[in-house]
Amino acid sequence: MVSERTLPEFNTVSIQLTKAEGLMLYEDMTLGRLFEDKCAEMYYRGRMFGFVHLYNGQEAVSTGIIKALRPGEDYVSSTYRDHVHALSCGVPPREVMAELFGKETGCSKGRGGSMHLFSEKHRLLGGYAFVAEGIPVATGAAFQSKYRREMMGDDSADQVTACFFGDGASNNGQFFECLNMASLWKLPIIYVVENNKWAIGMAHDRATSEPEIYKKASVFDMVGVEVDGMDVLAVRKVAQEAVDRARAGEGPTLIEALTYRFRGHSLADPDELRSPDEKQFWGNKDPIQRLEAYLIEHNLANQSELDEIKQKVQASVDDAVKFAEESPEPDPKELYRYIFAED
C-alpha cells in the first residue's frame, strides 16, 4: 500500500541556483549514495560489523539542510543513521569509513562505530543510538549559543543548530519538552523530522494521532513547514529560510521532510514489511536523479560533467576503504581514554 499523503508542490521557477551551487549539491548527494552503497558491500562481505543503518534515498534532506549552514560553525545533531550527515558536515570519507571499521583513525577514534560518529572540528554533535536521544543535546547546543550572545556579550555567537530525527522520535517525550523550551526561549535551532514513513517496522500513520508532524509546531507557537524531502532544492529553500529566522533571533522551526529510505531499517533487516508498490512509488522519486535532470534541463551541467563527478566520488570512497583497512586498531592500553575531557 502506498501512503495517500501527497508531496507538497514546489515552484522551481523562482530558484536562483548557480552552476557551482548545483554541482556542489550533486556531489554531496552522490557522495552520500556511493558511500552507503560501499558500506553495504563491506558489511555483506564481513568486513564491517555491528548495526549499520543506511541513508539511501534520503540524501536530499542531509544535503539540503546541512549545506544551508555555515560549515565548521553551526551545529548538527544526528541519529543512528548518521554517515551521510557526517559527510555533509565535511567529515572526510576516510575518517567516517575508518570509524565504521573500528579503527583508531576514525572520527570517533574507533570507539563509536556506525551509530556514534562525532567531530568537534566539524561541529557534528554526534550520532545517537536511542530514538530522540539527540534532541535534548541539540537543544542544549542552541541554548548555549543564545546564552553566550545575550548574556555574555559574545557577538560572534550566532550559531544555528540543526537537529535531525525520524518520524518515530516525534512521539517521544523529549520531542515535546524540547520544542516547548526552544519556543519559550526562542532558541536558534531547526528541528528536522526525516519522515521516511517507517519507524523500524512500524508504519508512521499507525503510530501517531496526528500523522502530519509539522502541524505539531503550532502547539508551541512555532513555524512548522512541510517539504518534499526527495527534492534537494525544496529542502534547501526551507532550510535557508529557517536559518535566517534562527540567526535573526526569531526562534526555532520544525521542518518535516517527506522522504523514504530505499533499504531496510538496517542491513540486518530483510525488509519484508513494505510493499513492492510502495518501494517503487518512492524509488521513482530518487532525489539524485531528480537533481541530475534539473541541472541538465536548466543548462547548469551536462552529462559528462556529472559522470566526472561520479567517478571522482567513487575514487574517494574506494580510497576511504583502503585507508580504513590499512589503519591501526585502537590500542587496548588506551581503553579508558576519551571517557573524560583532556587538556
Automatic annotation (TrEMBL):
One of its GO terms (biological process) is pyruvate decarboxylation to acetyl-CoA. The keyword ATP-binding does not apply. Residues 29-333 form the Dehydrogenase E1 component domain. Keywords: Oxidoreductase, Pyruvate, Thiamine pyrophosphate. Its cofactor is thiamine diphosphate. InterPro entries: DH_E1, PDH_E1_Alpha_Subunit, Pyrv_DH_E1_asu_subgrp-y, THDP-binding. Coiled coil: none annotated. Its EC number is 1.2.4.1. GO terms for molecular function: pyruvate dehydrogenase (acetyl-transferring) activity. It is an enzyme of class 1 (oxidoreductase). The pyruvate dehydrogenase complex catalyzes the overall conversion of pyruvate to acetyl-CoA and CO(2). This is Pyruvate dehydrogenase E1 component subunit alpha.
